Amino acid sequence: MTLKGKTAVITGSNSGIGLGVAREMARAGADVVLNSFTDRDEDHALAEEIAKEFSVNARYIQADMSKGEDCRGLIDKAGSCDILINNAGIQHVAPIDEFPLDKWDAIIAINLNSAFHTTAAALPKMRAAGWGRVVNIASAHGLTASPYKSAYVAAKHGVVGMTKTVALETAEEPITANAICPGYVLTPLVEAQIPDTMEKYNMGREEVIKKVMLERQPSREFATVEQLGGTAVFLCSDAAAQITGTTISVDGGWTAL
C-alpha cells in the first residue's frame, strides 16, 4: 500500500492520533504536512524526525483550526494536498443546560467547521491532480451518543454527515471521502489520566482500564494510534478506491452494542 509521490496534510498532528496517522502515512511513503495551533521548535523538530526516519519530505505548518481563514491557509501553504486527514479536535464535558457557550463554539469550530474549510480548499487541488482522498477522524460518538458531551457528539455526527455529502459530490471522480470512528485510543493524554483514575477508584492499572475506562468498549482494549494510521493508509490505497461515503469503526465493538 505505497503512497509514494502523494502529499498528506494532517490537521492536529503534533501529538496523539494525528501524529500516529502522520507517521503511518510517512511509513507508506507519503510526504507529510504536520499541523497544530502552536509554533514551537519541537513542532518543527517532529517534522524533521519523520523526514529523517522515513526518507520523505515533512513540514510543520502552524494554523489555528478554530479560524476558517487559517484552515484554508493551511491547505494553500501546503501546496500539494493529495490526502487530507481532518483530525483536529477538542472536548469538554458538561450538562447541556450548563454547557459554556464559548466551549460549544470552540468544539463546533475545531471539530466540525475546520473540516469544512480544509475540504473546500483541498478539493480543487485534488481535482487538478486527478486523484484525492479525504479521511475524517470522527469518533464512535459520530455514530452513537453519551451524556454530557452534546457539542462533541453534535460535531462528530456532523463530520460523518459531511463525509457522506463530499463522497456523493465526488462519486464520479477519482476522489473518495470516508470517516474513521475510533473508540477509546491510548494516546499520551489518556495515558496521563490512568494514575488519577487508579487512585480515584482504588484499583490497579489493568482493573481500572478494563472496568472503568473501557467499560463501553467490549474488547476491553484500547485502540492504538498505529492501528488508526494503518486504517487511514488503507483508505488511501488503491484497494479502497471504491470505498467512499462510509464509516469504519475502530472501537473494539463499541458501536456493535
TrEMBL record:
Record bears the keyword Transmembrane: no
EC number(s) given by UniProt: 1.1.1.30
Superkingdom: Bacteria
Single GO biological process annotation from the record: monocarboxylic acid metabolic process
UniProt-listed NCBIfam families: PHB_DH, PRK12429.1
Entries under PANTHER family matching the protein: 3-OXOACYL-(ACYL-CARRIER-PROTEIN) REDUCTASE, 3-OXOACYL-[ACYL-CARRIER-PROTEIN] REDUCTASE FABG
Family under the similarity heading: Belongs to the short-chain dehydrogenases/reductases (SDR) family.
Name of the protein in question: 3-hydroxybutyrate dehydrogenase
